Amino acid sequence: MSRLTTETISDWLQQLGIEFSLCQHCDGLHINLVTELNGVFDCKVELLDSDLYWVTAIEVAPQDLFQIQANLGPLSINYAELKFFIELDNTELPRLLCMNTLFTESGDISQAQFNYWVNRLIRQTTLAVQDLDAQALASDTNEIVSASSSSILH
Question: Superkingdom, according to UniProt (predicted)?
């Protein structure tokens, strides 16, 4: 097998019928299906140092930070494939990051493995976002506008 590249990931996403966009600010492939969910600021798959990273940023209203912090444990239990972090920045809304890493440096992955990984993460992330939305903890991005259009994710 050859080394995994962004072009290969792009081809695999296209074959899966997953719509994405290429970013001008990073090497990420931004997953439209997840990015369009209520409260989601961004979702991407990115190849860094031969490993694949899944990162979804969910905007959180500042008044919900304590509740989000209190829910990190249950979120981690309910969605064990995702790691959750709170990202704070003075220029933007707080964000809950949902992340996963697929370590590929020690050996290449097959298309079937990638397909399973990305489909599983789309499902887990969607369920987590819906769960947060049901608890009214994900900000409606139509109601709350970021102070800045730049993103730390890039």
Answer: Bacteria
User: What residue spans define the domains of the chain?
Assistant: 6-134
Please give the model's pTM, rounded to 2 decimal places: 0.84
| Diameter over CA atoms, the chain | 49
Q: Which fold has domain 6-134?
A: Yope Regulator; Chain: A, (3.30.1460)
Q: What is the CA radius of gyration of the chain?
A: 15
User: CA of 5: how far to CAs of 21, 34, 36, 147, in Å?
Assistant: 16, 22, 26, 34
